[in-house]
Write a structure and sequence with these properties.
- With 144 residues, the chain is mostly beta strands.
- The chain has 2 helices and 8 strands.
- It has an 8-stranded antiparallel beta barrel.
- A hairpin with a 3-residue loop joins strand 4 and strand 5.
- The chain is globular, with a radius of gyration of 14 Å.
Length: 144
């Protein structure tokens, strides 16, 4: 586990406040896996609080593995069924470095699917990429 842990909740962005239905569709606990180009699977959990408090409206937590501390996620774009999220930076023990991951995906009911790219901050090339899928693990806001 990373020896340094500093999760700072991200304040709500103006786009979060203008698109409450798009953001609300991501509320809850999502459990899934990232499968990279080599076929290696890595489980993750994505959490989004349903709170209407402006201080947590855009906050997510992202758990990569039991060895990676909860990491902040910023929702960069959200529509009724699609989203782009920036995860990190977080310490990846496989890379022995701080990394960031971008999820580009679609939400269909209780399923998230899409692609991911992991990079070292400030680097252009991906060090890992592939597909992800996740299912809603709780009953929070199942509206489409």
């Amino acid at each position: 586990m990373s020896p340094k842990f500093a999760f700072t909740p991200l304040p709500a962005s103006r786009s979060d406040l203008r698109k409450p239905s798009a953001v609300a569709g991501l509320n809850g606990t999502w459990r899934g896996e990232m499968i990279d180009a080599d076929g290696t699977a890595q489980p993750f959990t994505l959490l989004r609080e349903a709170s209407h408090d402006a201080a947590v409206a855009g906050r997510f937590l992202f758990f990569v593995t039991a060895h990676v501390s909860p990491t902040g996620v910023k929702l960069l774009e959200a529509a009724n069924a699609s989203f782009v999220a920036l995860i990190g930076p977080y310490f990846d023990p496989n890379e022995d470095a701080e990394v960031v991951t971008v999820f580009e995906g679609m939400r269909r009911g209780a399923v998230l699917e899409g692609t991911f790219h992991t990079r070292l901050p400030g680097w252009r090339d991906s060090i890992r990429s592939g597909r992800f899928t996740a299912r809603r693990a709780d009953g929070a806001n199942k509206a489409a």
